[in-house]
Amino acid sequence: MFDEDKTDRNDALRIADFLRIQRFTTSPIKEEKYMALQRLTRTRYQLIKQLTRTKQYFLKNLTYKCNTLAREMRDESTSLFSATVISLMTDDYTLDELAELPLEAFCDLLQEKGRGRFKEPEKIAKAIQRAITMSYRLGTLHKSLSMLS
Question: What does the pLDDT read at residue 51?
Fold first, then answer.
C-alpha cells in the first residue's frame, strides 16, 4: 500500500490527504506478531492499573483502621503490601488483640506469618503496636471495620 519511505514529511502528506479527500481509508493489514504484542501490552497496562487501584483502596481502608501504620512502618524493612502485614490487618486478629499481645508472642506470630524471613521481628512488632496505640480509631465503628477486612 505505501511503498515510499516512512518519513515525517511523507506521514504529514498522507495525513493531510486523508483529512482532505479521505484517501487511504483502508488500514494496512496488521501482522499477527504485532497484534499479539498489542494485546499483551494492553493486558499488562490494565493489570497494572487494577493493581494500583486495589493498593490505593487497601491503603484507604487501612487508614480508617490504623491511620499511623504507614508512618510507623516507613523505617522498617517491610512494606505495607507484604503478605505478612496484609494478613495481620485482614485475618483473625483485631487491632486491640494485636496491641495487647506480648512482644514475644507477637514476634513469634510475625515469624510464623513471614516464614522466618524477618531479621528483626522485634522492631516490626514494636512499630505495629506503636502504630495501633497511637492511631486515631473510630469509636463505635472499629468493631465493624474489623469485620469488613
Answer: 95
